[in-house]
């Protein structure tokens, strides 16, 4: 039988395994040997076997069978076995396992051991994996060790006390008296543990803040001693005296000085001294300075000290270490709102960080640059942001465009500049803008009536040049449809005039309609623009009619539906075409529903819905039935001004001529609008029969919304003669006392015939 391998030899053999299967074989063989050693009892090899098992555990293989061996070794009187036993307990046991409770008594005994090294093992184990029950049982022992004379034990006891407070916060009061006394220690390890303990006490029990604020002068003196002390090899790190302790003290001072003038005043001079005397050329110095900056910004510090802190962060931006630049911009982002002018002094350096190769640094620089935009620097900052947009990574484009749009809307010096900026973004990154960009830009254009000519010329040129940016193409088509007459005049003072003919404009729109790059929504814009031009030009109406009719059989149902409706406007409703296709109304930004930052959420929602419906009807399509159905569900939510405008736009929908609404099996049903006022509509339903036999027992039923009163007059009869020799009529009166939107009423008619019941939905 092969003898068990020693730990070093086992490690060498496992590392030399060529395959995972070979490694598993070695591990299984060694685990079997380890089990055998555990069963043999105290043969002097148990600690070596457990050490091998811990290495197996580190490789990710099961090692739970060694838990009880850890308990036995901890109870051993030999230090070598205790050491491996405690190490195994920290690695193989946790607070959720029952085996961990078995070592509580051993830990309590070892905390009173005569050897400081045995005490240290017990303290480290309790601080690592002590459960709440263990902490409650052993807390008095830890508090006793905090008063020990041995600095080595006292240091470890403080860290163990921190673990107990985190596990059982109600035990914090037990350690409060001892924590304050530890600040008088000279040993840096004890001081470090004391500061961590006090920090934990303050965070878990804010009631102790006043008590520990009395210790601020002591903390200041300790910190000054570290800053001004001479070289000490034991604590020096890259020329900084114990930077770990300095960082911990600064964090504690930040907690104690928060919202407290007295404590803040006591530490102002110290913070200024640390900020001016600490060398930032090394990472250790940068860490101390960074904590100093955070402390200055979080306490009630003087204004000059806050400027000094911002300048330190500005110096960090010039550091070659990207991590330091990143945390600097993260900190500046937090204080830019409160110390805007101080951060503005470093605007040039921040903008230069947009050129960094690291994407995370670019993202932070972008967020900070957007936060620095103001009415004073809007032109220069926007120039830099637009340059960045043309070269930024794809994952930052959407965020960049959103930030540019928000800044332009908030600080634009003029409407022309605002429009030019958005058009530049659409030209550069039109595929990365938000969905609401198109309607928002259209709203902006409608309010700038003096720039309609300039805008339509500029958009026409952009459309001719490139049709790949869908958002830009949609806005261009909309503007051409609305202001095509201004484009054809060729008279524009703000831009170099270009003679554009009707054929040129229609060619451009046809190109969009036929392009494989155009989305269905973009084609809808182009088709609607073409339709609107029929009322703005004179010589090419027939060509427009031909274009529209072509798409009446389009495979895309949405486009086909629009084309069919537009054809109906050319034929049956030609007398209404000019009114239906008139220009969009101007939406005033200062009207209810759109104020600059002071708008309630409800009014904002009203405006957005209004803009959506108005936009659908005028810019996207004339799908009357769907628009009216949606409007019915939302009409009660809108301000009266928008209701009136919406009805104006929908007026053509409820102007009924006589219309045939049902025709099947010889039965023809027509609806005729006889009278319409603001509160009442009178319609007549006319039924005729072209079949061979008479229709008997003919009945009409109607249903309307609850807000409308329905009155059905007696029908002229219930038999409709065959061969069209007679008719049956019935008058229906709809009373609308609440003045609900009449175009939104639906009449449900049920026709009872010899065949199954058919339901017809007819708009009144």
Description:
- The protein has 764 residues and is of the alpha+beta class.
- The radius of gyration is 41 Å and the shape is elongated.
- Mean pLDDT is 82; it is low at 590-638, 645-656 and 742-764.
Main structural class: alpha+beta
Got a strand count? Answer: 9
Write down the overall geometry. elongated
Percent of residues in β-strands? 5-15%
What is the makeup of the main sheet?
A: 5 strands, antiparallel
Kindly state the mean pLDDT as a whole number? Answer: 82
Helical content class? 55-70%
Low-confidence stretches: 590-638, 645-656, 742-764
Rg: 41 Å
Q: How do the strands of the widest beta sheet line up side by side?
A: 3-4-5-7-6
Through-space gap between termini? 100 Å
Q: How many H/I helices?
A: 35
Could you write a compact summary of the structure shown?
This protein is an alpha+beta fold and 764 residues long. It is built from 35 helices and 9 strands.
Features:
single chain; 764 residues; alpha+beta; 5-stranded antiparallel sheet; two-stranded antiparallel sheet; 59% helix; 7% strand; elongated; disordered C terminus; AP-1 complex subunit gamma; transport
Task: Map the helices and strands.
Blueprint: H1 7-15, H2 20-39, H3 46-58, H4 67-74, H5 79-92, H6 104-111, H7 116-129, H8 132-145, H9 151-167, H10 172-181, H11 188-204, H12 209-213, H13 216-228, E1 236-237, E2 240-241, H14 243-257, H15 261-277, H16 283-298, H17 303-316, H18 322-335, H19 340-344, H20 347-352, H21 359-372, H22 378-391, H23 394-411, H24 415-429, H25 437-447, H26 452-465, H27 470-489, H28 502-514, H29 520-533, H30 541-550, H31 557-571, H32 577-580, H33 601-620, H34 624-634, H35 640-650, E3 659-664, E4 667-676, E5 680-689, E6 709-712, E7 727-735, E8 746-751, E9 758-763
Antiparallel strand pairs: 1-2, 3-4, 4-5, 5-7, 6-7, 8-9
Helix pairs in contact: 1-2, 2-3, 3-5, 4-5, 5-7, 6-7, 7-9, 8-9, 9-11, 10-11, 11-14, 13-14, 13-15, 14-16, 15-16, 15-17, 16-17, 16-18, 17-18, 18-21, 21-23, 22-23, 22-24, 23-24, 25-27, 26-27, 27-28, 27-29, 28-29, 29-30, 29-31, 30-31, 33-34, 33-35
């Amino acid at each position: 039988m092969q003898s068990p391998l020693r730990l070093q030899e086992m490690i060498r053999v496992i590392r030399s395994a060529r395959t995972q299967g070979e490694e598993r074989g070695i591990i299984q063989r060694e685990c079997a040997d380890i089990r055998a050693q555990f069963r043999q009892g105290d043969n002097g090899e148990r600690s070596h076997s457990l050490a091998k098992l811990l290495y197996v555990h580190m490789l990710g293989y099961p090692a739970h069978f060694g838990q009880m061996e850890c308990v036995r070794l901890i109870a051993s009187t030999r230090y070598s076995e205790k050491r491996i036993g405690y190490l195994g307990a920290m690695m193989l046991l946790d607070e959720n396992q029952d085996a961990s409770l078995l070592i509580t008594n051993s830990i309590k005994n070892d905390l009173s051991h005569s050897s400081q090294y045995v005490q240290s093992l017990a303290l480290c184990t309790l601080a690592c994996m002590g459960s709440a029950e263990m902490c409650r049982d052993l807390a008095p022992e830890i508090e006793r060790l905090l008063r020990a004379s041995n600095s080595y034990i006292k240091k470890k006891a403080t860290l163990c006390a921190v673990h107990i407070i985190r596990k059982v916060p109600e035990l914090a009061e037990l350690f409060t008296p001892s924590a304050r006394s530890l600040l008088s220690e000279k040993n840096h390890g004890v001081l470090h543990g004391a500061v961590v303990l006090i920090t934990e006490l303050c965070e878990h029990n804010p009631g102790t803040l006043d008590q520990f604020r009395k210790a601020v002068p002591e903390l200041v003196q300790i910190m000054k001693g570290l800053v001004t002390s001479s070289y000490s090899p034991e604590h020096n790190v890259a020329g900084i005296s114990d930077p770990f302790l300095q960082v911990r003290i600064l964090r504690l001072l930040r907690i104690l000085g928060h919202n407290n003038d007295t404590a803040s005043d006591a530490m102002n001079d110290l913070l200024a001294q640390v900020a001016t005397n600490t060398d930032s050329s090394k990472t250790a110095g940068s860490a101390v300075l960074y904590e100093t900056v955070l402390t200055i910004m979080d306490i009630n510090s003087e204004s000059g000290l806050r400027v000094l802190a911002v300048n330190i962060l500005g110096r960090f931006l010039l550091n070659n270490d990207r991590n330091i630049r990143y945390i600097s911009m993260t900190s500046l982002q937090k204080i830019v709102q409160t110390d805007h002018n101080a951060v503005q002094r470093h605007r040039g350096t921040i903008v230069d960080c947009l050129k960094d190769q690291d994407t995370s640094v670019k993202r932070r620089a972008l967020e900070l640059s957007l936060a620095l935009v103001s009415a004073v620097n809007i032109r220069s900052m926007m120039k830099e942001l637009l340059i960045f947009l043309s070269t930024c990574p794809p994952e930052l484009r959407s965020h960049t465009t959103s930030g540019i749009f928000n800044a332009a809307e908030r600080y634009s010096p003029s409407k022309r500049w605002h429009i030019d900026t958005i058009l530049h973004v659409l030209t550069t990154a039109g595929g990365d803008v938000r969905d609401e960009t198109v309607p928002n830009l259209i709203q902006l254009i409608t309010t700038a009536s003096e720039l309609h000519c300039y805008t339509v010329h500029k958009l026409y040129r952009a459309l001719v040049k490139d049709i790949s940016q869908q958002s830009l193409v949609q806005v261009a088509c909309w503007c051409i449809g609305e202001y095509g007459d201004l484009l054809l005049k060729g008279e524009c003072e703000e831009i170099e005039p270009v003679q554009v003919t009707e054929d040129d404009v229609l060619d451009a729109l046809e190109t969009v309609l036929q392009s494989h790059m155009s989305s269905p929504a973009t084609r809808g814009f182009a088709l609607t623009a073409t339709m609107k031009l029929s009322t703005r030009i004179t010589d090419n109406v027939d060509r427009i009619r031909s274009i529209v009719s072509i798409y009446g059989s389009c495979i895309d149902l949405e486009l086909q539906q629009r084309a069919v409706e537009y054809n109906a406007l050319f034929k049956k409703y030609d007398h209404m075409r000019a009114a239906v296709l008139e220009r969009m109304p101007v939406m005033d930004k200062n009207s209810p529903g759109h104020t600059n930052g002071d708008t309630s959420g409800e009014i904002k929602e009203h405006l957005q819905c209004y803009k959506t419906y108005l936009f659908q009807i005028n810019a996207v399509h004339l799908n009357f039935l769907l628009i009216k159905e949606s409007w019915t569900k939302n009409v009660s939510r809108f301000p009266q001004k928008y209701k009136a405008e919406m009805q104006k736009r929908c007026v053509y929908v409820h102007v009924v001529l006589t219309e045939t609404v049902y025709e099947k099996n010889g039965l023809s049903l027509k609806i005729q609008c006889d009278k319409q006022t603001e509160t009442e509509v009178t319609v007549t339903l006319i039924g005729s029969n072209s079949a061979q036999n008479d229709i008997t027992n003919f009945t009409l039923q109607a249903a309307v919304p609850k807000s409308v009163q329905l009155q059905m007059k007696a029908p002229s009869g219930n038999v409709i003669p065959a061969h069209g020799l007679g008719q049956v009529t019935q008058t229906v009166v709809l009373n609308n006392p609440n003045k609900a939107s009449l175009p939104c009423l639906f009449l449900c008619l049920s026709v009872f015939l010899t065949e199954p019941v058919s339901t017809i939905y007819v708009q009144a």
